[in-house]
Batch of 4 targets.
Target 1
Amino acid sequence: MAQTYLTGACLCKNIAYRITLPTPGTLPKVILCHCTNCKRYTGSGFSANIVVPQSSFEYTKGSPKLYSDRGDRGGVVVVREFCPDCGTPFTSRSGDDGEEVAVKSGTLDDEHRVKCAELGMEIYYHRKDGWVDGMGDESVKRVNGSMDG
Ligand SMILES: [Zn+2]
Ligand SMILES: [Zn+2]
């Protein structure tokens, strides 16, 4: 059966959401953002997002807190939604354009996240951290599990 929706939640599970896919069976591709604000916001090297129509996204449990920041170029305000209890970032969207929302793909529930397996685009590529290239490097030690094994 064609996939018609995706669900996700934050780490503490106080907030959950559902995305109704605009085209059933067509899963969104992942878009990486290497901008400096996404690095800080995620505490990582980049953010991983799926972009969906705002109208397809709804919270099914709890409500997030909003944070407005400036885009990398200083102009457009980006509105970010996150869980006030555990800090998980959910979405970011341009203050100018309420049509689409970028949902952090790491917040999708496991069975839905694994289906969004295709990388579509990388933006703010000139801000990419050097270590990111090491992710495909065979010489890097790989462990299935934590650092202690
Ligand atoms: Zn939470
Ligand atoms: Zn970004």
Target 2
Amino acid sequence: MQQPYKDIIYYATLAPSGHNTQPWKFELFDDGIVMMPDWQRTLPIADPDNHALFISLGCALENLVIAARNLGYQPEVNYIFGGRGFVQILLPPSNTPPTPTEIALFEQITERQSTRCKYNGEPIPSASIEALLAAATEDKVICQAITDTTTIKALTDLVKEACILQFDNDAFVAELTQWIRFNKMKAAETNDGLYSKASGNPNVPNWLGKILVDVTVSPQSEAKKYEALINSSSALVLFAGQGNSIRTWINVGRSFERFALKATALGLKNAHVNMPCEAFDVREKLAKLMQLNSGTYPFLLIRLGYAPKMPHAYRRPVEEVIISHSEAIAAL
Ligand SMILES: Cc1cc2nc3c(=O)[nH]c(=O)nc-3n(C[C@H](O)[C@H](O)[C@H](O)COP(=O)(O)O)c2cc1C
């Protein structure tokens, strides 16, 4: 059982995660896998309530389930939270082959990426938008595509406002810088973090990268950069959740991952412009602008469009994310 389960976990680890922290661990059992958060890989400043951590776990869970279906299993997901966010995935063998949809999403797991460059602004056919929203359908999750220029302009203003708040905060910049891998050697050493080439920046030595952040990054420069990136995009997509709980966050992750895989299949690129979901004061304005009901929270804001492929981000090898039973107990 060990090797097939390791193969499934490999696909789970290709999921997106905030700052590419890869905040997951897996324990293998005879009848399945338990996935749990890695509390050493949190983002206390950018993500103080850990909603992004659990959205990331939801993305990994979705990849795991899709991979399991394609590798001959009938996964059964049980949420065993108890405040710690453990998810059990039982893996009985399947009597039914994967559906064409499951196969099509599986084929995109190794291709999907967060593409942070400028897009070409080409409009997206409405059939593609409909297919994306259908792929994202998930309990407790509301996924809205925004293509009208007035709402996009209002959302861009909120992205800029939140960006300025975040980059005015030295602790936020310090935490972000800690996760930037300024060159290939560093990225390949840690196999995590934000690899500068994947963000369209050149390889530079660590010491120079840190100086460049100090000298060239300011709240205003970041706000301007994101305004230009949104202006180059064809649509924005908002993922909101009913409730502000671990279960909702995981569902948002599952919904977003299917959306991202479907987008990849359609030749579309996506990247996060989440700042107004992360700066809690701005989040309220965002909820109001998008007329969300009370108790429904915006969690992800994504830009969508057409662009060339960028280098992929690194991942830790499967062996590093599998833990023993005693390690799992210690993590409780
Ligand atoms: C919950 C969540 C939040 C994220 N927030 C941001 C963000 O604010 N800005 C950004 O550029 N990327 C963001 N990302 C994308 C990650 O940085 C990206 O997934 C990671 O670097 C791995 O790269 P990949 O998606 O290309 O595999 C986020 C991803 C997730 C799952």
Target 3
Amino acid sequence: MACEIDPVKAEGFAGSLIEMINQGAMSIMISIGHQTGLFDVLAGLEPATSQDIANLSGLHERYVREWLNAMVVGKIIFVDDTSTYYHLPMEHALVLSRKFPGDNIALFAQYIPVIAGVEQQVIHCFKNGGGVPYSEYGRFHEVMAEESGQTIIGALFDHILPLIPGINQKLEKGISVLDIGCGSGRALNQLGEKFPNSVFLGIDLCKEPIEKARKSAEEMGLRNVFFHQADLTSFRLDAEFDLVTAFDAIHDQARPDLVLKAIYNCLKDNGVFLMQDIDASEKVYNNLDHPFGRLLYSISTLHCTTVSLAQGGMGLGTMWGTEQAKRMLKQAGFNKVTENRLPHDLMNCYFVVSKN
Ligand SMILES: C[S@@+](CC[C@H](N)C(=O)[O-])C[C@H]1O[C@@H](n2cnc3c(N)ncnc32)[C@H](O)[C@@H]1O
């Protein structure tokens, strides 16, 4: 069969491909601007030279100038026609600088270098199977903690807990809470501080975030928050909990099915399971216009799918889909599942789940 090529379509696609590669490169530059504090220095600053900006940031001018020029061609920062004075418009600073907490988009750019760091290992897995373990990801837990600091901690008391009717009163009175895949434990430590009569346990596979979580709890003087390093694939707890939470921590488990069943088994009959997880469809066709689709499938390939496969797991991936999530919750025995979306968190769905 003759294959006819439409030259206009071919040229259009080549153009958009170049644009994608350009934007990919900008993500790393944005990540650098975030980590070096350059966006914070530039937010609200009058037009300034690269030397002034370097001095204010405590960084080397030559690197700062090259970064500024990348930002200029990326239309993130403006420069005058002598290419001397650089300026970050306030409208851009709003989503780039830490001076505006809660709205920072730059922090998400850090995921690109994090996942790029394991590119070669993942290519090896494409050819040989298997997966890349958590231990290979340099800054994953650090970036994750920063992200959840914004999506979870910033909204925990005003938006997330109110999804569970009456939970505030119960937490004030004193209940037991388990957090699955707690990472660096920021959510649990905040809860522990606010509700001293309740007891909190966080479990995570990885040593580094668990140690960080314990250290923070100690620094905060908390005596009601505990962290335990364990593989949830085979977890059995004698205790029963009134509330179980999982923030972005079910889909990349080795065996989400077993973890959900174990949550069911350790939840009191009148208890609640709050599961925050990715808001997407299990069918890729339905995700064509997903605002984070390209980012999330990429994170899935280079992180969520492979870390699960590395543990001999199911490798459901980031985009396991709300349809599959609800099916698996039902299979675990939960009869009541409500889905909630919160305006501050366009990436996730909040499932409030109970036995009856
Ligand atoms: C995407 S992170 C979310 C972390 C944390 N809940 C947050 O919001 O910052 C998923 C967490 O699940 C943990 N995890 C993955 N597989 C696990 C397993 N088999 N057992 C226990 N924890 C696991 C990871 O170490 C990681 O901290």
Target 4
Amino acid sequence: MNGQLLAGKTAVVTGAASGMGKAIAKLFAEQGASVVLADLNKEAAEKVAQELPEGKALPVQTDVSDDQSVAAMIQQTVSTFGSVDVLVNCAGVPQAFTPIEELSLEQWDRTLNVNTKSIFLTARHAVPHMKAGNKGSIINIASIAGIRARPGLNAYCASKGAAIMLSKALAIELAPFKIRVNVINPGPAETPMLGKFINGDEAEVEAGKKDIFISSVPLGTLIQPEDIAQAALYLASDLSKIVTGEVMNVDGGRGI
Ligand SMILES: NC(=O)c1ccc[n+]([C@@H]2O[C@H](COP(=O)([O-])OP(=O)(O)OC[C@H]3O[C@@H](n4cnc5c(N)ncnc54)[C@H](O)[C@@H]3O)[C@@H](O)[C@H]2O)c1
């Protein structure tokens, strides 16, 4: 492998202010991409942008569940860098374990809006630009929870299962335009999100990480954000030029 894998490409990464999105943005920039860091958290996105090579990063405050906000972000991407070649939908919200009868309508809607509707919204605004260039790679970060349920993660599992099937539907629809759509299912990962799946005080959260999450991973450790970034790099680059509609579990074997 010679040179940078994403030289000359423009990548939009949602949720780029933290965790996996941040690791993806950094690796993509190292590999030559211009990166748009689209996140609700403006300050954190700006901080990540400062860690990237000058001129290669554009932080844009975005609510991925809001159509107008997504439209403005894609518009800014194209007016700044000229194209959208890669789109990574990584922004997401967790759900603390909740019995179904206690789950509020607001929580259901928010989970589905941020984790699933966002894929529809980013696609509807980015795809016309990808079609114009007759190329593109869309990578949706779903979850192993989208294929393997846990008790009390009802809305979250539903949001990720829908994200996986929406990705496959887009993969078959967009294949004639050479736009590839793939999914990464992370297993339990060491990011700020992980503890938020657990209800309880700090000690209970730490115990839960060990008892619930680490113990469920056959390889015996939590997934690192960089593990997800490496998989995203493969799917974003021409190394995977014949791969579409694929669901890649990056999960230490949790999905077996
Ligand atoms: N951490 C895990 O164990 C785990 C496991 C499987 C899948 N995932 C998924 O991986 C993705 C990344 O998660 P992470 O662990 O890096 O989480 P994180 O909490 O570290 O980062 C999530 C980012 O999304 C942003 N965000 C939230 N709502 C947003 C909105 N409406 N608009 C724009 N940005 C918004 C947050 O500001 C944050 O920067 C998520 O989709 C998550 O569901 C995480």
